[in-house]
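TICKET: design request
STATUS: open
ATTACHED STRUCTURE:
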C-alpha cells in the first residue's frame, strides 16, 4: 500500500459504506509508525506483520498474522490471529464497532487487547477443552479508546447507565453474528473485564452471552 507521510492517523470513515471492502485510500498512516508494516490477508484494512506457522502440540495455525492496525484503529499490542479471524475483526471494527460508539461523537482510535493466540485450555482450566485462542480463532478485548481520549472499559462501563454503558453494550451486541461466539461479563466469572470473540462455528448458530 502507498504510505502517505501524515503524522495523524486519519480514518476516512465517511467514505466507507456498509457494503464491500474499504478502499485502500480510506486509510492513511504515519510513515514512522507503519514503515515496516505490510497489508495482511490481502485486506487493506489489516496492517501488521506476517509471522511463521505455529505448531505447539495441539495448538497452532498456518500463516498467522500479527495485526497492529485494523481499519485505521491501533491495537494496544499486536494480535496474532489466523486470517479468517483477522478479517472478521476488520469487518466488525470498521462497520459495527464504529457504529456502536457513534453517539459518543468520536471514533474508536485504539483497542486494548488482552489476549490473542495462546496455547491453553478454555479459561486456563486444567482438563478443559482446547481454547479457540490455541488455534488463532479468538481475541480478548478489554477496552476501547476514542479519538477524543474517552476510554470505554468492559470492567468499568458494562451495565452502567449512560452513553458509555450503552456504547459498551452495543459493541458486545454488534460482535454477535460477525463472530460465532461472543462472551462478556454476563457469561461467567472469567469474563468480568473483557470480551471474548471467536470464529469457531457452532451447529446451533452464534453463541452470545
Ligand atoms: Zn478469550
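STATUS: resolved
RESOLUTION: sequence designed for all positions
ATTACHED SEQUENCE:
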Amino acid at each position: 500500500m502507498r504510505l502517505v507521510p501524515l503524522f495523524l492517523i486519519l480514518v476516512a470513515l465517511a467514505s466507507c459504506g456498509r457494503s464491500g471492502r474499504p478502499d485502500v485510500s480510506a486509510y492513511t498512516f504515519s510513515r514512522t509508525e507503519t514503515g515496516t508494516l505490510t497489508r495482511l490477508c490481502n485486506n487493506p484494512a489489516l496492517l501488521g506483520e506476517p509471522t511463521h506457522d505455529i505448531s505447539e502440540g495441539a495448538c497452532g495455525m498456518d500463516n498467522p498474522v500479527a495485526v497492529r492496525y485494523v481499519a485505521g484503529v491501533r491495537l494496544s499490542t499486536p494480535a496474532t490471529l489466523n486470517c479468517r479471524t483477522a478479517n472478521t475483526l476488520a469487518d466488525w471494527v470498521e462497520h459495527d464497532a464504529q457504529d456502536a460508539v457513534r453517539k459518543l461523537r468520536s471514533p474508536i482510535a485504539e483497542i486494548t487487547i488482552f489476549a490473542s493466540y495462546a496455547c491453553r485450555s478454555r479459561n486456563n482450566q486444567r482438563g478443559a477443552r482446547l481454547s479457540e485462542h490455541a488455534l488463532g480463532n479468538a481475541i480478548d478485548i478489554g477496552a476501547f479508546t476514542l479519538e477524543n481520549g474517552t476510554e470505554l472499559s468492559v470492567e468499568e462501563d458494562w451495565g452502567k447507565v449512560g452513553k458509555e454503558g450503552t456504547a459498551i453494550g452495543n459493541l458486545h451486541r454488534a460482535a454477535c453474528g460477525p463472530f460465532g461466539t461472543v462472551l462478556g461479563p454476563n457469561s461467567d466469572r472469567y469474563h468480568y473485564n473483557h470480551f471474548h470473540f471467536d470464529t469457531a462455528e457452532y451447529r446451533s448458530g452464534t453463541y452470545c452471552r
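CLOSING REMARK: The chain has one domain: 53-208. The CA atoms of residues 142 and 194 lie 4 Å apart.
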